[in-house]
Specification:
- The chain is of the alpha+beta class.
- It has 10 helices and 9 strands.
- Strands 1-4-5-6-8-9-7 form a 7-stranded mixed sheet. A two-stranded antiparallel sheet has the order 2-3.
- Strand 5 and strand 6 form a beta hairpin.
- Helix 3 packs across helix 4 and helix 8 runs antiparallel to helix 9.
- The longest helix is centred in the last third of the chain and has 38 residues.
- It is elongated.
Length: 381
């Protein structure tokens, strides 16, 4: 490609490297405020380093831009210092010292080398955990995996040398596709317990709903407004649907991500609507009772069933608008998280929901509940 005597265009090069997977060292840093082996934190190191950089830029009149491996150089110096310090005792046993060091003194360099690759040289540095492999001479480092797809390089994941496995980011076609795949699921026992509890709740809901329909003329049921009770039962049915779909998604993760996305969005929407129906109806029923007992001579035409149902739908409307906006702007997706288990050479797949804005929906629901309670209290007072 670089030799112009060969005819190879940019398009040809992109075609040639399509799907190629390449590796590079992953630069990691320690937790900013946790002291490292040297006694200072990465945050302190960064401040001091930037101060020195600015001093050199003023002295030399140049702009220092490449600072990528500053933490690595710092850790290399500390690794050398630790190995030299550890060499003092074994050298003393041989009637030698570091002051006797000369490049030609092989017995001294071998001792230093042994300490450099010793298991004891294992410390928390500025660029992460520092260890060296005696068989290769390289540091034991994190490795980034990238793959070229449609002319763009994507990060597939990284290899963590201190815990077995390759963590995938879920982008591109991962190399683990050639390994046997095992889907991680919720145990059958846990699923059975959840479904059993859900079945009991569903049975109770159906039983009470039947009583509400059959005995609607009874004065106690009639006083509670049967049409409003229907809305509460509808909310309970939707909640059962939401719990059931969630349990099935965890126990039997769908291989088709489109199907998973539809089921997951069904779970979210049924939860939102059921919440709005149940608590919105309870709000309206409470206000209705207050109106009856405080204005029993002339409770007003607002107590008409159709108007009460309209009031419930109005309390539900903000939640429907919010859910619709979130679905359009940031739709909930169903993705696979893959991790290679190197000891068994299989790929564990954990199907899970990947979303941002939907995580705030639960908080909004509870704040909305508080708002309804406050509104009810204000109207009563």
């Amino acid at each position: 490609y670089m030799d112009k005597k060969y005819v190879c265009s940019d398009a040809d090069m992109k075609k040639a490297i399509e799907g190629v997977i390449f590796l590079q060292y992953k630069l990691v840093t320690s937790t900013p405020n946790v002291p490292t082996y040297s006694g200072i934190t990465y945050h302190q190191f960064e401040e001091e380093y930037q101060k020195k950089v600015k001093e050199h830029e003023r002295e030399l009149g140049i702009n220092i831009t490449d600072q990528t491996y500053a933490a690595t150089y710092y850790d290399a110096t500390w690794a050398m210092a630790i190995s030299l310090n550890s060499s003092i005792k074994p050298l003393k046993e041989k009637n030698l010292s570091l002051l006797d060091y000369r490049p030609q003194r092989r017995e001294i360099t071998e001792v230093i080398k042994q300490q450099f690759y010793a298991p004891e040289l294992d410390f928390n540095g500025m660029s992460g955990r520092i260890r060296f492999d005696s068989s290769t001479g390289h540091s034991i480092s994190f490795i980034d995996f990238f793959q070229v797809l449609n002319g763009t390089s994507y990060s597939l994941g990284y290899f963590n040398p201190f815990t077995p496995g390759i963590v995938s980011h879920g982008n591109g076609t991962f190399i683990s596709d050639s390994f046997p795949i095992r889907y991680v699921k919720v145990s059958v026992v846990a699923l059975a317990i959840v479904l059993a509890i859900t079945a009991v709740l569903l049975g109770m809901t159906i039983f009470l709903h039947v009583i509400n329909v059959v005995c609607w003329r009874h004065k106690s049921i009639k006083a509670s407004s049967p049409p409003l009770n229907h809305l509460i039962f509808s909310g309970c049915y939707l909640m059962v649907v939401s719990i059931t779909v969630f349990a099935l998604l965890e126990a039997f993760p769908p291989r088709n991500l489109v199907v998973g996305g539809v089921l997951f969005n069904t779970m979210i929407w049924s939860s939102v609507v059921s919440f709005g129906l149940v608590f919105g109806t309870v709000f309206v029923k409470t206000w209705r009772l207050y109106r009856i007992f405080t204005h029993f001579r002339s409770p007003g035409h607002f107590l008409n069933n159709s108007r009460l149902i309209a009031a419930v739908l109005i309390t539900l409307l903000p939640l429907l608008i919010l859910s619709t906006v979130v679905t359009i702007v940031d739709p909930a997706l169903y993705k696979e998280h893959r991790q290679i288990t190197m000891s068994r050479y299989i790929t564990e797949v954990r199907s899970h929901s990947c979303y941002v804005s939907w995580s705030y929906i639960i908080g909004v629901l509870f704040y909305y509940l508080i708002l309804l309670v406050c509104t009810l209290c204000i109207s009563i007072l």
